[in-house]
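Appendix B, Record 12. Input sequence as logged:
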Amino acid sequence: MKQGEAARRYFAKFDAIFAHLPRVAAEMRRDGGFDRLEIDVLSGYLSRLERTFAALGMKYLMTGRTGPQALTIDVEESGFPVYPELLSLANDAAQATRQLQTTPDRDALIETMLREILGELQVPRRTQYALSQRLYRELIAGGDLFWPQIEPDALWLSETGQRRSYLVHWAAYDSQINLPVVYLLNVEDTGQAALPVGDIWPEVQDHLKAQSVAGLKLLTIARGLDADFEQLHPKRLRRLHLGPLYSSAYTRQTGPIHDVLSTAAAPEGQDWCLSWTLEELESERAVEERKGWFGTVERQVFALDPFSGQGPDTGATRTTRAAILPERPFQVLAEMDPPGFRKVTKYVVSPGGRVLTYR
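Logged structural output:
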């Protein structure tokens, strides 16, 4: 397969996957994994990710014909674009508005293309490239993409006396694993001012962004917040890894997933499996600790996986995994029944839009 054709098929594959994700999210809500507000938050990040892929698809539309080299993909691990691609996207976005003001608009470029095709009888590759870059800059200038880091936001949940409850959420495109990662934090606030308008909010945002690294355990992140901000009491912290993507056409996967995809020999557009990993850390109880001579401060005691003594210390209460895949790879997966997939929830999607859940 030629480089340009491979790039365009890669983006078409993600277009198809993104079309399934809202229905998968609805299934996750029915399963009780997330409530309605949390699904709305996750859907917002998925929409950002979809627009990011649409922008990258336009940026690299002319790969193999003219313009920049092909998109760089992490073919060994994540199946997603490498982190520098997101940095380049953010840098382009900072200059997009100015560049749009100095380039011909869509109508002018289309008119030039028609003149080159009909009047000069030539393939207008340079003009096609100019139009694709114009559309790329329009997309990134519009904002709401999945940037390398997305600022924490706080959503009010409830209030009892001086204790206010919030859902704080933020996201990052992790540079270590080349994957989009979403964080959901349920926190109680006992400060004088409401968290999003209080003096500490900018500091809390910076603190959370600095901790947005996949290599850090949830326990480390939660304890750091609990220790550094006395008025904040983290009750539950979740981290959702949106990927990896496995595809026999684009990634060099090994192990059972390689056997499943190669045996399935599914047609183009259905030869993939997208995995999700959800880590959860919950507060088991709160205790009072001495502070100074007369003061006390509330600290959280977090519940850890009771089976961690028999395996790696995950620093989480539980870790669950899910796989989203088309019908044909799932049929092969069910027949092979590899041990590593037996505790993985499978969301099986069909071209008609139906989603079935198997455990």
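Residues 197 and 260 are 51 Å apart (CA to CA).
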